[in-house]
Specification:
single chain; mainly alpha; four-stranded mixed sheet; 22 helices; elongated; SAM domain-containing protein
Length: 471
């Protein structure tokens, strides 16, 4: 597990440990098990499955050296009892056995499934339900071999020259999940194991009790005007209803963001301060990495010419990071009309709109909301002449949130809002996902690693520079 931990981000690894996956049960994981544990991202799934495929044989050979007497006894029983003797004990299958198998005929698929069920239940049932272990690859393969040894004509069922219909290592590929009737039946048997006895289980959600007090406090603070005088009362109230906020994050609702905003509208007030405070409550361990300002400015070292017209150093550094993280040669569609190349390069993160009034305030916010740049995908907005400094906003699901005039603080609020509102960066916004991964890995340390190679390579360059600033 320690070797696998180095290859995964902290969130994915936490899902494994929350489901009690250890050095023993790791090797029995399948793609279906990962889905049950809510590990659905392609990158982490491929890392885990490839790691298991490449290291399973060595691990199982080690297990064999330290296997206890009970396990050795079950292996001995598997070798000692013939397949035919097991089948003939089942009255419902006896006719198929004597009239077809013994006569050299291949039963139809329905009868083969029945045969497979009888054998897997007999050889592996007690092991799974009472011995609290799952059959190894060798044991499943051994049963398939035994079937063909006793009924050689069943080789006609093979999927290919070297692949048994009953068990096929990696499904005929170099790596991947095993397939075949035995593998499928064992997977279904594992579903019937009581949840408390499973080697890996879906992590339990934090039990949260929402009381009438939470509802009343939320209603009270939502009625307060977001003035400087009410700031402390609202902040204290938001802290008191943290359990209500967290319970809403646990719900799987498409309108989760709007439900949270409707219940706790002051997330949109005070230039994102309530978002930052909520994020700190959700992540109790403080980040121990370099500052966000440092990491974004390090983007300035990646490229000395691109986005040079962008006035703000932090935004310019972030945009240069996007360029490094981009897939060269891949065209991106744009929702901007008559945009310059610079605006198109910045579009995944930030867009500029002009505002003619000299005093910012409600009129500026209204202008931002009415702007054509406000689209469904998450992004930042700067109200200023093109590429100049100004007041910052961010947009999630067409909702505009003011962030003030500090660019680094606006970037911080923007990316932390995904956690606070339970919103994932859309898959189509790959560059934004990569930048989010850079920040999570290097600044907030909420992830140990990234599934993106470009992010991993850039992180290594950052670490080398931070560890050797003089070189």
């Amino acid at each position: 597990m320690d070797r696998l931990k180095k290859k995964l981000d902290s969130g994915t690894y936490a899902k494994l440990t929350d489901n009690l996956v250890n050095d023993i049960s790791l090797w029995d994981l399948s793609a279906e098990d990962l889905t049950m544990m809510d590990i659905t991202e392609v990158g982490p799934r491929r890392v885990i499955l490839n790691f298991i495929d490449r290291n399973r044989e060595f691990a199982e050979s080690q297990d064999e050296n330290v296997a206890n007497n009970d396990q050795n006894e079950s292996l001995h029983e598997l070798r000692a009892e013939s397949v035919r003797s097991v089948l003939e004990k089942n009255g419902k299958f006896l006719k198929t056995l004597t009239k077809e198998l013994d006569c050299g005929s291949v039963p139809n698929s329905k009868k083969l499934l029945q045969m497979n069920r009888i054998l897997t239940d007999h050889f592996f049932g007690d092991m799974i339900f009472h011995g609290k272990r799952y059959p190894s690859r060798q044991e499943k393969q051994q049963l398939a071999v035994r079937i063909l040894e006793e009924f050689p004509h069943l080789k006609n069922t093979r999927v290919s020259e070297n692949a048994s219909y009953f068990f096929w290592i990696h499904g005929g590929l170099v790596t991947g999940c095993h397939t075949g009737l035995i593998e499928t039946r064992v997977a279904n048997m594992r579903k019937d194991v009581p949840s408390e006895d499973r080697k890996f289980r879906r992590g339990k959600k934090k039990h949260i009790v929402v009381t009438d007090d939470h509802i009343n406090i939320a209603a009270h603070i939502s009625a307060l005007s977001p003035t400087p005088t009410n700031a402390k009362a609202i902040a204290d109230g938001m802290a008191q209803v943290h359990d209500l906020h967290e319970s809403m994050l646990q719900k799987k609702a498409e309108s989760k963001f709007h439900n949270i905003i409707k219940t706790l509208p002051h997330f949109l007030s005070y230039e994102g301060e309530m978002i930052l405070q909520a994020y700190n409550r959700l992540n109790e361990e403080p980040a121990d990495g370099p500052s966000l300002n440092t990491v974004l400015r390090m983007g300035l070292l990646c490229d000395k010419t691109s986005c040079s017209e962008v006035e703000d150093d932090v935004i310019r550094g972030a945009l240069r990071l996007l360029k490094v993280l981009s897939n060269k040669g891949v065209k991106r569609s744009s929702s901007l009309q008559n945009a310059t190349l610079g605006e198109l390069a910045a579009e995944p993160l930030i867009r500029w709109i002009t505002f003619t009034e000299t005093q910012p305030g409600f009129d500026e916010l209204l202008a931002v909301k009415q702007s054509q740049t406000v689209s469904g995908e998450p992004h930042m907005i700067c109200v200023a002449e093109r590429f100049k400094k100004g007041n910052y906003y961010f947009v999630i699901d067409r909702t505009v949130v003011p962030c003030g005039n500090s660019s680094v603080r606006a970037v911080e609020i923007f990316f932390k809002s995904f956690r606070v509102f339970g919103v994932k960066v859309p898959v189509l916004l790959l560059l934004l996902r990569k930048l989010d991964s850079i920040i999570a890995t290097n600044v907030w340390r909420t992830a140990n690693s990234s599934k993106y190679k470009a992010v991993t390579d850039l992180t290594q360059r950052f670490e080398e520079f931070l560890n050797n600033p003089e070189t």
